[in-house]
């Protein structure tokens, strides 16, 4: 009896093994799937890839998106480079804000062109600032200290009068009205940055401030564009200056033009600056936290004479003259109107204003990420319409939607 039971167990075990072997062999015969985009062993069984739709012949392959398969520009563009540099006025405490700006400029433009970058400070730059910025910039970096005489009160300024003005502006809550360092900065940007020894090596500059943003790819050399088209000054934003910061700037300018009429060129941009043939200033100016310009023009006798005249008038300290209206008035009177350029294609942000290029196709082609509804160009406080009218330029298609 025991032997019979043992044989039955062997038979049941053998049956179980046979059943398991059957299922294993059956599972191994499941056909392999042909995934899209890969050819199977039998070409006739291949599943057509999205790039080669079934039934289409020829070498032309249609794009799979409405952008037409646009390619990224080369990491380093071909061609000669201009004698040009970026320039930034910053302090060590600005490091992480200027790092953001550098990253924007490098990603959108300079990784293709590798231009140098000059950093200027009224103090010594520390090692951390140098290490971080050098690592971010694709060109060479240079670090300069501003001479004390360029960042201090000139001996002809009445310190008591200047202090009283600052106190009055503080009470009126005028932006930077009580700041001494801001006044030194405006004076320095107006009359000295282009004369720093590090800047004397260059012919062209692009000014970059901390915390700016570039919204679109720039696939051409802006410096070469300026040179080839005989431009000497450029901008992306223009607006009205705070009236209380420059009450006598135009009077000082008219005194200068009477003394130095030889510096005022024909076919200039006076109508951008004045609505009554130069009698009064309408306060329009180019926002100078962005500018690409010619350093030889700033170092010219005409501009130096203008700056020296303004400096001795005292308005940098007795009022709060900004470098933006100073540069703008100088460019408007001393340059021909066709020597000033508006870069519609350089999308730019500096708190609180945005320039987002007008024109949807341009924004798509250049991978812009700005919101056109935030574009300041056609805002009532913008002066861009005046610039277009002065130069008989047609406003870009679609500008009405951004007013």
UniProtKB/TrEMBL annotation:
MF GO annotations: alpha-1,2-mannosyltransferase activity
One Pfam family in the UniProt entry: Glyco_transf_15
Keywords noted in UniProt: Glycosyltransferase, Membrane, Transferase, Transmembrane, Transmembrane helix
UniProt-annotated catalytic positions: 291 (nucleophile)
Residues annotated as transmembrane: 7-24
Keyword check for Kinase: no
InterPro entries assigned to the protein according to its UniProt record, in alphabetical order: Glyco_trans_15, Nucleotide-diphossugar_trans
Domain of life: Eukaryota
GO cellular component, one term: Golgi apparatus
GO BP annotation list: cell wall mannoprotein biosynthetic process; protein N-linked glycosylation; protein O-linked glycosylation
Stretch list, region Disordered: 41-79
Polar residues bias: start-end ranges: 52-67
Family in the record: Belongs to the glycosyltransferase 15 family.
Protein name: Nucleotide-diphospho-sugar transferase
Record organism: Lophiotrema nucula
Lineage: Eukaryota, Fungi, Dikarya, Ascomycota, Pezizomycotina
């Amino acid at each position: 009896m025991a032997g019979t039971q043992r044989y039955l167990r062997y038979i049941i075990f053998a049956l179980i093994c046979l059943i398991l072997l059957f299922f294993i062999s059956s599972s191994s015969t499941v056909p392999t799937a042909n995934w899209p985009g890969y050819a199977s062993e039998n070409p006739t069984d291949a599943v057509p890839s999205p790039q080669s739709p079934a039934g289409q012949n020829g070498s032309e392959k249609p794009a799979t998106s409405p952008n037409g398969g646009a390619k990224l520009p080369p990491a380093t563009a071909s061609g000669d480079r201009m004698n040009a540099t970026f320039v930034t006025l910053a302090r060590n405490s600005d490091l992480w804000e200027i790092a953001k700006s550098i990253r924007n400029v490098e990603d959108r433009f300079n990784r293709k062109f590798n231009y140098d970058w000059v950093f200027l400070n009224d103090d010594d730059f520390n090692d951390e600032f140098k290490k971080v910025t050098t690592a971010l910039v694709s060109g060479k970096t240079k670090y300069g200290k501003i001479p004390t005489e360029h960042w201090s009160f000139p001996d002809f300024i009445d310190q008591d009068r200047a202090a009283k003005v600052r106190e009055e502006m503080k009470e009126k809550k005028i932006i930077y009205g009580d700041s001494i360092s801001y006044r030194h900065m405006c004076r320095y940007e107006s009359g000295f940055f282009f004369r720093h020894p590090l800047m004397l090596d260059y012919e062209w500059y692009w000014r970059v401030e901390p915390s700016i943003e570039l919204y679109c790819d720039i696939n051409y050399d802006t410096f070469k564009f300026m040179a080839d088209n005989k431009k000497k000054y450029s901008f992306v934003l223009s607006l009205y200056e705070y009236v209380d910061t420059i009450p006598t700037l135009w009077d000082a300018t008219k005194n200068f033009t009477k003394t130095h009429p030889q510096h005022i060129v024909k076919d200039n941009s006076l109508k951008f600056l004045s609505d009554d043939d130069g009698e009064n200033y309408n306060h329009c100016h180019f926002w100078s936290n962005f500018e690409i310009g010619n350093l030889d023009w700033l170092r010219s006798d005409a501009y130096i004479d203008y700056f020296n005249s303004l400096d001795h008038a005292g308005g940098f300290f007795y009022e709060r003259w900004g470098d933006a209206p100073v540069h703008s008035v100088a460019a408007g009177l001393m340059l021909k109107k066709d020597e000033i350029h508006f870069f519609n294609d350089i999308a730019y942000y500096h708190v609180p204003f945005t320039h987002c290029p007008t024109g949807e196709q341009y924004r798509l082609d250049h991978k812009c990420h700005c919101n056109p509804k935030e574009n300041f160009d056609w805002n009532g406080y913008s002066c861009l319409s005046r610039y277009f009218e002065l130069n008989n330029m047609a406003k870009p298609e679609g500008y009405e939607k951004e007013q």
